[in-house]
Design brief:
Layout: H1 11-22, E1 26-29, E2 37-41, H2 46-67, E3 75-80, H3 83-88, E4 105-108, E5 111-115, H4 120-123, H5 132-149, H6 164-174, H7 185-191, H8 208-223, H9 225-230, H10 237-244, H11 248-260
Parallel strand pairs: 2-3, 3-5
Antiparallel strand pairs: 1-2, 4-5
Helix pairs in contact: 2-5, 5-6, 6-8, 7-8, 8-11
The structure holds zinc ion.
The site of zinc ion has 6 residues, from α5 and α6.
Length: 262
């Protein structure tokens, strides 16, 4: 999730400073070109960071393979030791005072804020830290947001409008979540009358990941991955549709027909 909406920008630096004032913060810079990130964490998360590092490297490989090109800019992944620190990692202008229990990460061009999986059992819901595939795909999902931000005119997504279905759908598709934990959800949504009536509502409700992911998969099927990659640079829903070469009504209608015959 991009915190379900957006953005960190200079936040990583600010946080690093704030944490350093209170604790001695640790960091593990990765040297290999295949891992263009720095992992920041508090001493209490040293073990968790060690466990996550190879998973993150693999997630980077998955993203770069899907898009066919490396991350253009290095970024930081910050492990937040508890829910309060995670909440405090969002800049005041986002208006996010307290995150919901299911929110454990956000990703923008500069990097990822991640509530440490060490505390998910006590401080999160709907996320099992012992489920290796779930954790790997969740991290991959966030890295897709990072990659997206690094290719968008608005690196923190603040100056975008109507691209939620694409941003979340792309992350759900490219991370493998659409084929695993959200498989069949678009079909279920349509069958139960909970399908989207507009792209603006695709990223709402209990089926939002499956529906948005399926929409992007449909665009890829119809237009090819190269077009989906071009869509990374779009700032608005209109721009996305123009690149996809379909009107909103046409996209939704053809998508519904395709999902029903899957
Ligand atoms: Zn997301």
């Amino acid at each position: 999730m991009r915190l379900q909406t957006s953005a960190v920008a200079t936040l990583t630096l600010f946080l690093g400073f704030a944490c350093a004032a209170e604790h001695e913060s640790a960091s593990a810079a990765t040297q290999a070109s295949s891992a263009p990130f720095q992992l920041d964490f508090q001493p209490v998360d040293a073990e968790t960071a060690q466990e996550l590092e190879p998973v993150l490297r693999e997630a980077v490989r998955t993203v770069e393979t899907w898009f066919g090109a490396p991350f253009p800019v290095p970024f930081t992944i910050t492990l937040q030791p508890d829910r309060a620190a995670f909440d405090a990692s969002f800049p005041p202008e986002w208006g996010v005072a307290h995150t919901e229990c299911w929110m454990v990460a956000s990703g923008v061009a500069t990097g990822v804020q991640l509530l440490s999986p060490r505390v998910w059992k006590a401080q999160a819901c709907e996320h099992d830290p012992a489920d290796a595939r779930h954790v790997a795909q969740l991290l991959t999902h966030e890295l897709v947001h990072v990659y997206h931000g690094q290719h968008n005119p608005s690196p923190d997504f603040v100056d975008t409008n109507g691209i939620d279905w694409f941003a979340e759908g792309l992350a759900t598709l490219a991370s493998g979540q659409l084929a695993s934990e959200h498989a069949g959800h678009a079909r279920e949504a349509l069958a139960s009358g909970l399908g989207p009536t507009s792209l603006a509502t695709a990223w709402t409700g209990r089926y939002r990941y499956g529906v948005s992911g399926s929409l992007v998969a449909f665009v890829e099927h119809e237009r090819g991955r190269a077009v989906v990659i071009q869509m990374l640079g779009a700032s608005s829903g209109e721009e996305l549709l123009e690149l996809a070469g379909m009107s909103e009504a046409e996209l939704l209608e053809r998508w519904r027909a395709a999902v029903r015959t899957e």
